[in-house]
Amino acid sequence: MPVKELQSLEKDPLTQIVKLSQCSPNFSRVSKKAYIESYGCQMNFADSEIVASILLKEGYTITEDFDKASLILLNTCSIREKAEQTVRKRLEYFNSKKNQKSNMTVGVLGCMAERLKHKFLEEEKIVDLVVGPDAYKDIPNLLKEVANANEAVNVLLSKHETYGDISPVRLNSNGVSAFVSITRGCDNMCTFCVVPFTRGRERSRDPKSILNEIVDLVSKGYKEITLLGQNVDSYLWYGGGLKKDFDKASELQKRTALRFENLLDLVAKSHPKVRIRFSTSNPQDMSVNVLRVMAKYNNICKYIHLPVQSGSNAILKKMNRQHSREEYFQLINNIRTIIPDCGISHDMIVGFPSETDQDHQDTLELMDFVKYDFGFMFAYSERPGTLAARKIEDDVPESLKKRRLIEIIEKQKVHSGYRTKKFIGKTVCVLIEKSSKRSENHWSGRTTQNTVAVFPKKNYQVGDFVDVKITSCTSATLIGNAIQLSNSI
Ligand code: SAH
Ligand code: F3S
Fold this sequence. Notes:
Elements: H1 3-9, E1 18-19, E2 33-38, H2 42-57, E3 61-62, E4 71-76, H3 81-100, E5 105-110, H4 111-116, H5 119-124, E6 129-131, H6 139-147, E7 153-154, E8 177-181, E9 183-184, H7 195-199, E10 203-204, H8 207-219, E11 224-228, E12 236-237, H9 251-255, E13 258-259, H10 260-270, E14 275-279, H11 288-296, E15 303-305, H12 313-318, H13 325-338, E16 343-350, H14 357-370, E17 374-379, H15 387-391, H16 398-421, E18 427-435, E19 442-446, E20 452-456, E21 465-473, E22 477-485
Helix pairs in contact: 10-11, 11-13, 14-16
The structure holds S-adenosyl-L-homocysteine and FE3-S4 cluster.
């Protein structure tokens, strides 16, 4: 199926598909070609760049055209059932291709590999290779197993693996924005979420390797770095080891430990002409210290993705979220006080088991209080193995989930419009990323608040910071005119 068609089938932002473009012309005479498709969160896209780096060392080139590839890898997402269904359809498609082409290897990477493990080989028989998120360095060995017709599965989760020693190969890149992973895994055990099972325990990456990767990106002309993790605010470096083992660290390690605010400060100070973003923040971990560092540096973007999941205390408790609605309001108030112009977005789930009309009203009310700039909204999808799946009946009818989802999406549209309208008449700094989807004559970029802005190209280039006077807007996009190159990034 052409990629465009697949994109239009899948509207969920977390299961968007992106093809990875070709890279490394140095290897153009080598015949082994690999094709990688990534689904799900930004971390998966960043991981695919690590996989590409490992494959390049094995003599592969990465191709955009799967018909030319002898190795097809799908980096998959398990977050909702729909995400898995999309991947299954795609795997079936590649499997049919494999039947026509005998020398083709199909592999599944990422969260579905971790969740389903050997099942892919035993029951489904649609892939040759199954590799979990912490086992990508084993891909070269696993490919040898495939060549010898042996089982090729590695789904071991690691306490240490952060891929800190691998320089990711930037794929599908605009040369302007890049992701840098700083933590892996999650210890939070939200009852609806499969991530702790598929990505393992939380561990932080050595700050030296983070800073080195950023220096390398900056030397190559990148202008915006997004620090990535399931829970960036709980970043904690005390010389290696799991977050949960910090209590056992020595006194010296505890005293010299580096927390997220320290890392953010270091990165922002080292690269004053580069924009710094981060994602995702868990409300329970976001500290006032982080907000102060954000306020201190002009180059740290004034934007926080702050998933709340529900506005009801009863539901938050059943979700095992570690904060109340009131504590979330307090955090929002702190953000508005310390960073008055901060953009805030959310993730929200409707139809969690037992959610009543009153719980849903609480969610709508919370949205009214915050008036988010934008958000990602989902109907609850039961994931096998999670605590919610084992202990709580999925008792909200699908039709009601759908109705509640439409209601929160409609509300978000109104709030997004409220936020974008506030920019009309103002001049904002935009980093140019690409041509606008609607018009080749317009650039598209984002403001510090992460709002998309489009404007006529004039003589500006991708990678320029420009001051744009906003003249009109839709609920999601600012429209304006570039005035000059910007000094305030
Ligand atoms: N902390 C992570 C969250 C990953 S999951 C991060 O890096 O963003 C992304 C979002 O998917 C969650 O915030 C939640 O809103 C949604 N989600 C997770 N599990 C879900 C489920 N079982 N059903 C519906 N939505 C879910
Ligand atoms: Fe999932 Fe909750 Fe962690 S949403 S990724 S278990 S913070």
